[in-house]
Specification:
- By secondary structure, this protein is mainly α.
- The protein has a two-stranded antiparallel sheet with strand order 1-2.
- A hairpin with an 8-residue loop joins strand 1 and strand 2.
- The longest helix is centred in the middle third of the chain and has 19 residues.
- It is elongated, with a radius of gyration of 23 Å.
């Protein structure tokens, strides 16, 4: 990827690699500078623009740069997932690619975060469609059995502690 125009747009004090850079070098630079938000935004805006205008090779490039976040979301969504892990991974990737193609607004800040949120939402939606919800510990799937909800009865009201007096004004 030619980073010369991007480095010129950002200024020389960012430390961004200049000229044509290999994808692994760009990915490594982004991983080593997690708080370089302006640089990250400009790089991802360019990647999204190229993926939309120049074809699928740039979409693959964008997917190749995204694994740290996508792996983190997949790991969290796999916890307690009883379905096929490949289905969940495919849904996360589909959400990322759909947002890359036509959902992320390039005029807004943090396009990479918007792509990742779309990927996470897609995976989460698959979990919801299959009838699972998050548990408090995120370790076990918790199906929505209506019969179990009806069997538990109405919610209990809190009981007064022994020796507690009601205050009258």
């Amino acid at each position: 990827m030619d980073l010369g125009p991007l480095a010129g747009q950002l200024g020389d004090d960012t430390g961004l690699l200049g000229g044509v850079s290999a994808l692994p070098a760009l990915r490594q630079w982004l991983l080593e500078h997690p708080r370089a938000y302006t640089v990250r935004d400009v790089v991802w805006q360019e990647l999204i623009r190229r993926a939309r205008l120049d074809g699928p090779a740039w979409a693959i490039t964008a997917v190749a740069l995204a694994p740290p976040a996508l792996r983190r979301y997949a790991g969290r969504l796999h916890t307690g997932w009883a379905g096929d892990a490949h289905d969940l991974d495919a849904e996360i990737l589909t959400g990322f690619l759909t947002a890359l193609r036509d959902q992320v607004d390039l005029a807004r800040p943090a396009p990479y975060a918007a792509l990742c949120v779309a990927a996470r939402r897609a995976g989460h939606a698959l979990r919801q469609r299959d009838g699972y919800r998050w548990t408090t510990s995120n370790t076990l799937p918790a199906p929505y059995p209506e019969a179990a909800l009806r069997a538990s009865g109405p919610p209990r009201t809190p009981r007064r502690r022994a020796g507690h007096r009601r205050r009258v004004r």
